[in-house]
Amino acid sequence: MNHELTIPQRGVNNWHVPINGNFEQLDRDVEIRDSAANRDSYEPKQGALFRATDTGNLYRGTGSEWTRQDPPGVLVDWASITDFDVGNDGDDASAALKTALESVRNVYIPQGSYKLAKPLKFSSLSDRRIFGSGTLRYPQDGSEYMFEFEKSSGIEIDGISFDGNEKNTNDYGAVRFVGCSDISVRNCQFYSWGNSDGYTDEPHTVATRGSDDVDILYNSIVDSGGKGISVYAFDDDQTDSIRIIGNRTKNTDEEGIFAGTEHNSGTTRVVIAHNDIDTTKKQYGMRIGGLQPCNALITGNTIRNTHNAAIEVKSRSSSVYTITNNVVTGNNGINIRSVEEPLGGVIANNSIVDCNDSGQGIRLLSGCENVIVSGNYANQIELDGGDNFSIFGNYTYGNGITTRGARNVEEAMNIS
Fold first, then answer.
1. What is the pTM (predicted TM-score) of this model?
2. Which residues is 249 bridged to in the sheet?
């Protein structure tokens, strides 16, 4: 690769001129890397770049001085956590990060590890972004949630690693939003969060409660003592407009993904797509439901090694679910039920592989009406009550199709 450098022509006498120009270009284009304290040891040539290896900050030469540059994607109103008093490695950086978030809209966490010894709680913040490639870690005695935002809006967390400390035996989680709107957690790494105590309660690793317009995208969550992702409605308020896409959860004590509630509320307009869920010690792979109407799309997920069903849908209100193109491996399956008002929808093109459990498969257990079940590969399809089903183009390799108590069932082109 020549980096668009100038190559002298064969036979010229002034071949050194373009060569010297190349050296000047390299001085500008090749980033100098050293600790921040050594920055002034380098000449700040016009356009040259200097990267401080200890803080991650980037500087550009003006010909007379080094000027710090904004991190990628941020133009105004930003600061690095290292601009505040983070102390030495191992010192508590909680106060520094809290001050940063309360002072500027964009807080950059450069590469490195920063201990937060105290939970950070914020109320009524708006338009804040925390981003970078650094790691925030909890101490061995950490408790509660590392971050909690209440009644805030426009909060984005991007690219950070969250180390929960595998030696911690307390109940705690990484991030929770309560009564918030327009929130985003994306491209983050979460590992060793929460104690596996045998109870199905908070804290969970990434949690929202009574929050709307939620994006949880492309995160990795490994070793969680509760749920990996929990989107929970609150009191009488629905949780509306939820997108949980492209995440990976592994070794969660409860569900990899949960969206719903058991109280007088619920989730609506939910998309759960292209997630990878591997190993839940208790509960389901993912569970969705609530007491209010819900329209949900569950598609393209891969789920394996779950304690109970891979996908569990339970509703008490008239709802419509579209469940398509999911792949489930092992002795688990897809359960759908409503305990009060009808639940309808489409269950299509799902694959349930290597399932030898006669109690699993695609199971419409109660309260289902106006459902299409098409193009699935499963050990069995079970209808337990309900009304008005269209069952066609499915392949069952175990117990076939049973329609116990179901009314108005049309079957066509199924293979058993």
1. 0.82
2. 221, 277
